[in-house]
Amino acid sequence: MSGHSTYQPQSAFMKWMERRLPIAGLVYSSFIAYPTPRNLNYWWTFGGILSFMLVAQIITGVVLVMHYTPHADMAFNSVEHIMRDVNYGWLLRYLHSNGASMFFVAVYIHMFRGLYYGSYKEPREVLWILGVILYLLMMATGFLGYTLPWGQMSFWGATVITNFFSAIPGVGETVVTWLWGGFSVGNPTLQRFFSLHYLLPFVIAGVVVLHVWALHAVGQNNPAGIEPKTDKDVVAFTPYATSKDAFMMVAFCMVYAWFVFYTPNYLGHADNYIPANPAVTPAHIVPEWYYLPFYAILRAIPDKLFGVLAMVASIVVLAFLPWLDTSKVRSARYRPLYRQFFWVFVAVCLGLGWLGAKPAEGGYVLASRILTFYYFAHFLIILPILGKIEKTKPLPNSIADSVLSEGVPIGAPAPAPRAGASA
Amino acid sequence: MSSAHSTRRDFLYIATGTVAAVGGAAVLVPLIAQMNPDASTIAAGAAIEVDLTPIAEGQVIKVFWRGKPIFVSHRTKKEIDEARSVNVATLPDPQSDQARVKPGKDQWLVLIGICTHLGCIPIAHQGDYDGFFCPCHGSQYDTSGRIRRGPAPANLPLPPYDFVSDSKIKIG
Ligand code: HEM
Ligand code: FES
User: Fold this and answer.
1) Tens digit of pLDDT for each residue in B151-162?
2) Residues in chain A with pLDDT < 70?
3) pLDDT tens-digit readout, B105-138
4) How far apart are CA A317 and CA A135, in angstroms?
5) CATH, residue A54
6) DSSP states of A10-72 as a string?
7) pTM: predicted TM-score of the whole model, two decimal places
8) What is the interface pTM, i.e. ipTM, of the complex?
């Protein structure tokens, strides 16, 4: 079904080109003729949105660098200079800082989509693991970027996060000094963080290529969680997926624009408009919202080494998901029990995020411990057992069957017009 | 003849691999070492002197050495007694108060003011133990700077320092 191109170059120039660099054929077979399951819903549009956000971050970032000064004595003022003096500087900076948040909104939806429809299962394990790597790279990039304005949260966030490495037994202090390039977070730290913040998005772009490559090798999963069998199960990427992606992208950009224009600092912290001060720690150190669930896990454990290990494990466990979930059925549509556990898990993640923003005291700590336990139990206990005991619903014979017999699901492409039918 | 050839090829093969491995390792040395503190950072970490006369009893001052905050605490009699009345064996990081001050200078406590959890600066005269409280994740230290409760694994460390006179210390 997929694989070789049906691209037929028309003009003499394209014929000449195709024999030398068959890029038009590659684009044609990957993004035009490429067969996509006909039942994809709007949750499948977030991959395109993520690609768009990466490009948006790179463009606004490259422009910010033209006005930003990566030096401990000047960084804060250069960001103020961007905000006040540079033409449209405020807009570019708000696009970039809110863009990071929107990027994470999209990646979380994209990941939960995968969890719900079992997109990590055989044969999509490598595709899924590449996704986990992308997520880790995004987290690193966002953290590095957040230190650049060199405000109080930048400085103390960098201090706390780099100190995670001091939990390594024996060599912790040596590693941290090496990361800092000094005896505390300072100018050498800022300069290397800037260098890496510029670099990592391009590493992300490279891994995205691998991710899409793996996707095109195995094909897309779909809401029914069964593989397409015949041509009746698929539609061409263009115009079906392209127009659906475009529609959602525009809707997504409206939300993005709403943040940028109406509440650009809502997702940030007022403390970061205070210049970095190595002598005073702000009363409440809170990371950016997208790290909060992991921060809650870190603080739930009353031991430094195990706290850091639990936090790392909470992300690493995702990479093992294809083998922890023992069910043969992919989509939660046909897994009545898993579907409930899925929503409990979503609630637990949101709960951890809420707790991560609260002070680490009293009932909050207890609640964080319970939710942290549940978070791990979901992967290590519930999923392995559920796959063995759950009675799943019968799967449809084909994607076409599932669409035509169960009625058109909301957001699925309309059935192709039948020959002879009049509108 | 053929075996002679393959020996020569084997030799070239192994020699190439070895030189490449040694060369690769040698290139890693500067790439990794450049991230360590540079000469100017180390030079800026020279010793500092602190005059103790202006520090009133019960006061904690903060000075900077190697970019790290150093607490110099002029302890009251009550604070010293509190630090000495606990059973050392029950502490998370057992250490006697005597071992954390210079002999005969019980009132002077000199600490690196960096929480041993994840590096925030604790606030003096706060928390349940009258000592230091870290606002980041709630670690509590006593009047000797020893960890008593919270996620921090160890006592606040002591910087290297000496009394150069009765009223002056040299840190570093
Ligand atoms: C994966 C893509 C990226 C993400 C998630 C990201 C994230 C961030 C974040 C969260 C900040 C802090 C914003 C603030 O609070 O002020 C930031 C700042 C910055 N980023 Fe990025 N970034 C990305 C790509 C880039 C690229 C490609 C460049 C340069 C080529 C760049 C250059 C900058 C600069 C100069 C700043 C400091 C100015 C400022 O604070 O607004 N970024 N980035
Ligand atoms: S840094 Fe002090 S308690 Fe975490």
Assistant:
1) 899 999 999 999
2) 1-5, 406-423
3) 999 999 999 999 999 999 999 989 989 999 888 8
4) 13
5) 1.20.810.10
6) -SHHHHHHHHH-THHHHHHHHHTS-EEETT--GGGGHHHHHHHHHHHHHHHHHHHHTT---ST
7) 0.89
8) 0.82
CA of A41 from ligand 1 middle (Å) equals 32
Q: Tell whether A414 is covered by a domain.
A: no
A169 touches B: beta carbon within 8 Å: no
Q: Is residue A154 a part of any domain in this protein?
A: yes
Q: What is the DSSP letter of A275?
A: B
CA distance A103 to chain B (A): 28
**Does ligand 2 come within 6 angstroms of the Cβ of B118?**
yes
State whether the beta carbon of B117 lies less than 6 angstroms from ligand 2.
yes
Inter-residue contact B123 to B131 (CB < 8 Å): no
CATH architecture of the domain B40-171 equals 3-layer Sandwich (2.102)
Residue A272 Cα: closest atom of ligand 1: 15
Per DSSP (E only), the strands in A184-243 are 234-236
Domain containing A375 equals 25-404
Total domains present in chain A: 1
> Both tokens of residue A409?
């699901």
Which residues fall within 8 angstroms of residue A339, CB to CB, at 6 or more apart? A116, A332, A333
**Tokens in use for A183?**
């005896």
